[in-house]
Amino acid sequence: MSSDQSTDRFLIKVSEDLPTLEECHSFVNSPSCGAISSFAGITRDNFQGKQVNHLSYEGYVPMAEKELRKLCEEATVKFPTIGQIAAVHILGDCPVGSASVILCASSPHRKEAMHCVEFLIDELKAKVPIWKREVYEGDGGAIWKENVEWKEGKPKRVMVRQEE
């Protein structure tokens, strides 16, 4: 596949201004595909008994987008019936109730789309250089959260480091 064709297949963005879930869904929608699977990671309001105010993400955009593109290309090899993929992640602050990451994939049938999205979120957490800081209400402070997936290159639980 030429790079122009893969570019047309993928919506990849790491930015302070993300497309909406609806825009990602619309991008992957295709008359030849009968299934769209999506995942949206939403900022929750609590962690280990603390009230979360917001999450803040940092990353190097060119490298993060390059890694996302590689993951999308890997996914289309692993799941060959995938039509199109949207993979977007926020940088900067992400308030409670808002999406920090959105992944969508289309395919003729449901299983490949569902497995593709699962593969993408697991690999994104393991390989894409984006870092998360959890900021708490009041004087609860903040912590940088380190993905064990990043250190080990495979899905696992999240470890935390208390900020000084």
From TrEMBL:
GO terms for biological process: Mo-molybdopterin cofactor biosynthetic process. Gene3D superfamilies: Molybdopterin biosynthesis MoaE subunit. InterPro entries: MoaE_sf, Mopterin_biosynth_MoaE. PANTHER family: MOLYBDOPTERIN SYNTHASE RELATED (PTHR23404). CDD domains: MoaE. GO terms for molecular function: transferase activity. Pfam families: MoaE. Keywords: Cytoplasm, Molybdenum cofactor biosynthesis, Transferase. The keyword Iron-sulfur does not apply. SUPFAM superfamilies: Molybdopterin synthase subunit MoaE. This is MOCS2B. The lineage of its organism: Eukaryota, Sar, Stramenopiles, Ochrophyta, Bacillariophyta. It comes from the Eukaryota.
